[in-house]
Write a structure and sequence with these properties.
Distance between the termini: 60 Å
Radius of gyration: 21 Å
Strand content: 15-25%
Strand order of the largest sheet: 3-2-7-17-18-19
Shape: globular
């Protein structure tokens, strides 16, 4: 009985967001929170700057300056202050984009996933240009609890661990509980007070009906917690069909994998969702590609491309897709008749604004998260944008997170024609 009372007391304190021990007592050396780069980073000789902003997807300039992990200046080298740089990168004419954002992943613990028994899947995605990931629920956790105390404790655990530890520097926004019927408004307040900012996919827990989902989504929104919903046919045991009626009634902030994950809704239901709400339209690599292109066409017809965001829905039954976001950009540009510079916005600025992130856009004050890339060697395209319009994947030469170089030439993309070089540090 004493053990049970102790466990209950620890769980209650975790839910209230008050740890039992001090940081000194509970932190090991390898668990230290990772900081951004200190000092001044100058990236010069950039061939093209993609902003991530639909209103102005291409910026004038050839130089970006970051100070202490934040963007300080964007422009031409002759016009910006490059003095006193602690590190200089010669982009060698390559294209600079914001770090790519995967709006839909299912992490579990660090850089391991039991879904495919795979290690280092997050680092592998970094080699595909992904510098930020958003959890749609830690649903692959073995023995995932369904009781309210357990699911709250697990969400807080995931939020804490991924806030304190970034695999290979990648920013993981995690701690996304899947809602259950017994939850009350107080549970959502408890979660928010403890730092939880996301809900897992509505429909992957016990709540699968519109009225209950709408009530709980409203509670989440009241306390600043973002929500998403599983759309389409079942993906894992325990999930089920979520059709247009449930999606529209639930009114989540993001319509998760509107192109199915794996199985898409009929076209008339997809159109009904697009036209019946103003929420985010998430297209995922793990879904139906034809349905993704159909959704894109509707969004373009409505003049609402700002609603389109991209994810992989990995790890999943189809595996881990390190180049999944790049493949979605290429697919939507080459077959969806969207300029490549616009397609890049779907995986950067659109998601950043919808998810209220400080990255995803090349503008002063934002996090210095960048990808330097070029057209793949021997691509038929005359430059990077043209190669993407033709359906090719770019070659990545470097990724930078918070002003820190994390990778150089990618081991996963086709080799880039040109690559950047660190010339001073």
């Amino acid at each position: 009985m004493r053990l049970i009372r102790l466990v209950n007391r620890v769980a209650a304190q975790a839910v209230r967001g008050r740890p039992r021990h001090t940081e000194r007592e509970g932190t090991m050396a390898h668990d230290a929170v990772q900081q951004g780069g200190k000092g001044k980073l100058v990236i010069r000789n950039i061939g093209l700057i993609l902003s991530g902003d639909l209103e102005r997807p291409i910026l004038d300039g050839d130089t970006v300056v970051a100070v202490d992990g934040r963007i300080a200046a964007v422009g031409y080298e002759k016009d910006v202050d490059t003095e006193g740089a602690s590190q200089v990168i010669d982009a060698n004419g390559t294209v600079l984009t914001p770090g790519l954002i995967d709006s839909h992943v299912h992490p579990v613990a660090g850089d391991w996933t039991p879904r495919q028994q795979q290690l280092n899947w997050i680092e592998s995605n970094l080699h595909g240009g992904v510098t930020t990931m958003i959890s749609a629920g830690e649903v692959h956790t073995p023995g995932r609890p369904r009781d309210v105390v357990g699911l709250k404790a697990m969400a807080i655990y995931a939020q804490r661990t991924f806030s304190a530890f970034r695999p290979s520097g990648v920013k993981i926004h995690a701690g996304a509980p899947c809602i259950e019927p017994d939850m009350t408004e107080q549970d959502f307040k408890d979660l928010a007070d403890a730092g939880v900012k996301l809900l897992g996919e509505v429909g992957l827990g016990g709540v699968k009906d519109g009225p209950t989902a709408r009530k709980m989504v409203a509670w989440a929104r009241k306390y600043g917690i973002q929500s998403t919903i599983h759309t389409g046919g079942p993906s894992i045991p325990g999930s089920g069909l979520i059709d247009k009626d449930v999606v529209l009634e639930a009114d989540t902030d993001v319509v998760g994998h509107i192109n199915g994950g794996h199985t898409a809704l009929p076209d008339d239901q997809i159109r009904c969702i697009c036209e019946g709400c103003k929420r985010g339209l998430e297209l995922v690599h793990n879904g139906n590609e034809r349905a993704a292109l159909y959704t894109l066409r509707i969004a373009r017809e409505m003049g609402e491309l700002n609603r389109v965001i991209l994810g992989t829905d990995a790890p999943a039954g189809s595996g881990v897709q390190p180049l999944g976001i790049l493949r979605m950009i290429s697919l939507l540009s080459s077959l969806g008749d969207v300029p490549a510079e616009v397609a890049f916005c779907f995986a950067t600025g659109n998601t950043a604004r919808m998810r209220q992130l400080d990255c995803g856009l090349i503008e002063a004050g934002r996090a210095a998260d960048f990808v330097l890339m070029d057209k793949a060697q021997h691509s038929a395209g005359k430059d990077l944008l043209d190669s993407v319009r033709l359906g090719d994947l770019p070659g990545i030469g470097m990724t930078i997170i918070d002003g820190v170089v994390r990778t150089q030439r990618s081991r996963n993309t086709p080799p880039a024609t040109r690559v950047p070089e660190i010339v001073a540090h």
